[in-house]
Specification:
Elements: E1 2-8, H1 14-28, E2 35-41, H2 53-62, E3 84-87, H3 90-99, E4 108-110, H4 124-127, H5 130-150
Parallel strand pairs: 1-2, 1-3, 3-4
């Protein structure tokens, strides 16, 4: 079982979008039974809130089901529960390393690093550009699946 946690600042935009898109992609490829997929915030600001309307609207537009979700914050205890803890930007990675007391097992990654890029996925809560965020999430998901396949972690 590959256990994946997507993380962003508030867990209402990027990480929720990533969780829903990745869940959809692994189901479409017949790989869902190989994954546990969740998402978290690095902050407490949105705890308990539903996904941002921009996230909901973008998923509806592209025909991807929204994973039922309420924002929650990652904790130190979550470190042992996941194999991959994926942040969306440099600030997320910095906050994850602080909150998780470092990354001794090398589980924390920036999402677009799987696609060969050091770029951040910009926060659409600030930019308002859910189309760009969605495109980046697709790029990250495809890169991550390719990474898992190349590293022999997927069984199909």
């Amino acid at each position: 079982m590959i256990r994946v946690a997507f993380c962003c600042h508030g867990n209402i935009c990027r990480s929720t979008l990533s969780e829903s898109v990745f869940n959809y992609k692994v189901k479409a490829k017949g790989l869902a039974d190989q994954f546990v997929i969740d998402s978290f915030a690095t902050s407490r600001e949105e705890i308990g809130n539903p996904p941002h309307r921009g996230t909901v609207n973008k998923l509806r537009e592209v025909g991807i089901p929204l994973v039922p979700h309420r924002a929650k914050q990652i904790s130190l205890a979550d470190y042992d529960k996941f194999d991959y803890i994926i942040g969306m930007d440099t600030a997320n990675i910095r906050n994850l390393n602080r909150m998780l007391k470092g990354d001794p097992e090398g589980k924390v990654y920036k999402f677009l690093s799987f696609a060969g890029s050091g770029r951040d996925i910009e926060d659409p809560w600030y930019t308002g550009n859910f189309d760009e965020t969605y495109d980046d999430v697709i790029e990250g998901c495809e890169g991550f699946l390719k990474y898992l396949k190349e590293h022999g972690e997927l069984h199909n």
